[in-house]
Design a protein that fits this description.
This protein is 34% helix and 30% strand. With 171 residues, it is α+β, with helices and mostly antiparallel strands. It is built from five helices and eight strands; from the N terminus they run E-E-H-H-H-E-E-E-H-E-H-E-E. The protein has one domain (3-165): Gcn5-related N-acetyltransferase (GNAT) (Aminopeptidase, 3-Layer(aba) Sandwich). The chain is globular, with a radius of gyration of 15 Å. A hairpin with an 8-residue loop joins strand 4 and strand 5 (92-97). It has helices at residues 20-27, 30-36, 44-62, 106-120, 136-144, and strands at 3-6, 10-14, 66-71, 76-83, 92-97, 127-132, 148-155, 158-165. The model has no long low-confidence stretch (mean pLDDT 94).
C-alpha cells in the first residue's frame, strides 16, 4: 500500500484489490451514479477487476490516478486524485465520497492535499476538473479550491462544465 499524501485527518493512498468491497459500495452510491456514471460494477469481484484495470493501470500508465481517502484509523471514506482523459489537454482532478462523509469537509481537505501533490510532486502547472451541468456541490467545491469555470465542453455525447486551476505563480 503506497501512501501518496497525508493531512491532519486523512491518508490518501493507492487503491488495491483489498478495497474491492469499498469501491463496489462507492461506485453504486446514488450521487456517483448520477454525477459520474454507472461503471457496471455490482460485486466485489467486479470491483477488484475494475481497480486493477482502471485505477492501478492509471498509476502504471500515467504515474498518477484516483486514490483511496481514508480516516487516520484506516476507514475508507472516498477517493480523490487525477484522471488523464484523451479529451482534455492535461490531468483533471476528481473526487467521490460515501454519502455519510460528504459534509465533513473531507472533500475539501483531500482535494487541497491533492492539488498540492499535483503541483509540487507531479509538476502540474494547470489542473482541470469536469462536472455534470447540474452538479452544483462539486462546482462550488472547485471554486472554493481556487478553480474557475472555463467553458462547457462535449465529451462522449455529454455536455460538461470545465473548470481550470492555474496558479498565478506556478510551481
Amino acid at each position: 500500500m503506497k501512501i501518496i499524501t497525508q493531512t491532519e485527518r486523512l491518508t490518501l493512498r493507492e487503491l488495491t484489490v483489498n478495497d474491492s468491497d469499498f469501491i463496489n459500495t462507492l461506485l453504486n452510491t446514488p450521487k456517483f451514479l448520477q454525477y459520474i456514471g454507472d461503471r457496471q460494477v455490482r460485486t466485489a469481484a467486479q470491483a477488484a477487476e475494475f481497480i486493477e484495470t482502471r485505477y492501478r493501470q492509471s498509476y502504471i500508465d500515467h504515474g498518477f490516478g484516483l486514490y483511496a481517502v481514508e480516516l487516520k484509523d484506516g476507514t475508507p471514506i472516498g477517493m480523490c486524485g487525477y484522471v488523464r482523459r484523451e479529451s482534455l489537454d492535461g490531468p483533471d482532478i476528481g473526487f467521490a465520497f460515501l454519502p455519510e462523509h460528504e459534509r465533513r469537509s473531507c472533500r475539501f481537505e483531500s482535494a487541497s492535499a491533492m492539488l498540492k501533490y499535483g503541483q509540487e510532486t507531479l509538476g502540474f502547472k494547470t489542473i482541470r476538473a469536469i462536472t455534470s451541468l447540474d452538479n452544483d456541490a462539486s462546482g462550488s467545491l472547485l471554486v472554493k479550491l481556487g478553480f474557475h469555470f472555463d467553458e462547457e465542453i462535449h465529451n462522449n455525447g455529454e455536455t460538461l462544465k470545465l473548470f481550470v486551476h492555474a496558479p498565478s505563480n506556478p510551481v
